[in-house]
Prior knowledge:
The chain is mainly alpha-helical. It has 15 helices and no strands. α4 (67-87) packs antiparallel against α5.
Amino acid sequence: MLKIKKQISRLYLSSVLENVSLTGAWVAILAARGYSLVEIGFAETVFHIVSLMFEIPSGVLADVFGRKNMLIVSNIMRMIGNVIMILSCNLLMVCTSIAFYAISYNFSSGSGDALAYDSLKMVNHEKYYEKYASNQLIIYRLCSGISTLCAGFALFIGHKLAYGTDIIIGIIQVWILSSLFEAGKRQRDGSTGKDMISSIGKELASCFADSIYFLKNAKKALFLMFCNSLVGAVDILLLFFLQVKLPEVGMPNLALGFALFFMQVGGIFGAKIILRYKGMRYRSVFAITAILVLGGVLAEHSGMYLIMTAGGFIAAFSDDALQVRTNTILQEMFPSEQRATLISVESFTFSMIMMVLSPLAGILFSHW
């Protein structure tokens, strides 16, 4: 049990390092460099196009080669993206950097949750996963909030130094990840040479086929993925573009970081409060959170920065409440052997929705 506690603690620490960054307000950084909201929306679209290409394959690779290994690969991809962003001088290079961030996201999206759930399953503590998922979202929101709180400082020192600090943090995170152990992944035989290549190919194909078979017979899982992804996409886009819209409607630059932090705190409250309503039906949770997120979008249309900030808080609250409930239900449904793959399918669904909404949101928000 002590070994599992250390495993979970290291996953928490890895999440802290992953989300603490001077570049959290990347939309504001790109806007300060002269890129328009339409161009930023296009870059976000590139992120999700690449995610569509690599999301499911990355999950399959995690199930076959190990979740720990793919978390390390994720970190390496992110550091490459940071290097490219430091060197970037045009939209093409920015989009190339964004593409590496997308691949990094792909390799981490299912791996960490799958590793945590199967680690807890080893000691029959699966029920703790909902609290784990809640804590992870709290870490994400808190660290993201701290990162956006540093938006002014990041703009002051420039994007090169800001992204340079991310590289240093990435190196530390790789060291933390290397101390994890695998749990619940498939075991390969001792074949070598061509036999090993053939065996690996068969494992990859088998894992993907098993995942498709599961989804074919689990329509409820697909419904949960779509509902969660739709609410999450609206929230993410709203918070992204509020980074630019708030200063445009008169919010002082010194207050921007605090406003962005306050909105992220909404997610922390959502992730904690949903734990008190374990008996509430999923359809009810979805209906309430969807209405609140739409309310956040309407608040953005008010043109009053205090109301807009409150709307962002409500949207983050709703998104994380639904995320915790959805993740817990899905993890209980997923087979261990395809867990990372199936989590990646959820991220794939999210990317499909974001790919459609991102350019539309860029155009929409730029005219409001």
